[in-house]
Amino acid sequence: EAWIKAYQLLATVLIDREKALYQHSREEQGGWTGPRAFRVKDKIKESELVTSFIFEPVDGQPIRQYQPGQYIAVRVKPENAEHIEIRQYSLSDKYHPDHYRISVKRESSPIKGMVSNHLHDAVEVGDTVELMPPAGAFFLTQPSRPVMLISGGVGLTPMMSMLETLVSDEAYQQDIFFLHTCKNAQQHSFKQRLTALKQTHTNLHDFYWYSEETNASEDIHTGLMDINLLRDKVDFNNVEVYLCGPLEFMRFVRLQLHVNGVPSERIHFETFGPHDDII
Fold first, then answer.
1. pLDDT at 271
2. Beta strands 71-76 and 128-131, pairing class
């Protein structure tokens, strides 16, 4: 009986909190609740596996602002799916008042990748999908010190939102360290965009690792990400870190950050999938 009462009390707290979040979303400028129709304005191939989708609201009304690092939920009905499917994808650009952008990795598994393959293969410019309002507890706070954005694989997507936001903020003049790892050059998303940003923003420093290539170059390292290579470039005692990627990758990187003196409270992270600690 006590467990039943405790469960009902906790359920009530969570249900009331969810209602408050929905209410807050609806009341914000451009906000809404439930699914809302968006049209695919553009579809851009970013790499071998990742494609970006730009969505504009069908009703032409304003859309809700979001924090860089947050996500939106996409609601679609793939042809072979028994039910409507909902998936969450990080927003991959700074906020624009007339559209959202997500960048989706095509998953190889037909079950795990049901929605990603549907988006890649069946959703084209002019088609309509339904989106839920932006949400998420992982986002860039107002930084007062240098920022390090670290990603593995498709964990790059929220980092692009953070990076685009930082470089467009004229008041932010601190160093930005952008670290990314993927399998090879063919899977390196947004490489051209990052190269262009580096040419126009002298405070942007980028470092890349390819795990399946053996030919190193001036800006490409091979093998696993090695934070120690940045010891003469980064003051680890004065840096804010944002980390996203596979769980084991984040554990590996976080250990390196700790060894170099970055405290846990300045390491912010997000996992794609069931949430877990990276200690």
1. 75
2. antiparallel
